[in-house]
Amino acid sequence: MTLCEHRRSDTHFTANVGHQGMTGPTARFDALLEAFEFVSFGQPGEHEAYLCTKTGEIHWHSEYGDNEEPLPDDIEDPEKYIPIPHKNDLGLGKPLVLKFAGGFMPDALDRVREIFRRPKAYARFKDLLEHRGTLQQWYEYEATAQKNALRDWCEDRGIKLDS
Hints:
The protein is of the alpha+beta class. It is built from five helices and eight strands. It has a domain at 6-85. Helix content is 39%, strand content 20%. Strands 1-2-6-5-7 form a five-stranded antiparallel beta sheet, with helices on one face. A three-stranded mixed beta sheet has the order 3-4-8.
């Protein structure tokens, strides 16, 4: 089954992205990545997305705003729905920043650690990257790490990916 249905408002989206195979659900990677980015946009719990193991649909929900459609009543059933993780669930927050800093700007690693001891750290980190001319490199590094972590997450759960 291919991506053939899109209904979207600013806060809720349902996409038919795959189907259940003999060994587990199948989903389109680009649809899962979009759901992952939605979930990771805010703090953990502010935005949610779930993959239906039977139909491959992704159900989206936000704590902010009117949701066009309510989540299914049985969304908590782990046999039917798999919650899409937040980036922090996959170690893609501060640990990824420190790994990047250690590998690409070791002379600033202590400064980055200090930045992340205070509120609004990510904005200050991006300011530092902008000043050093490495902001685009960070974005590329982060995107690659997110895709790799999401693919690993899918593999760990038996989710087969369509291109």
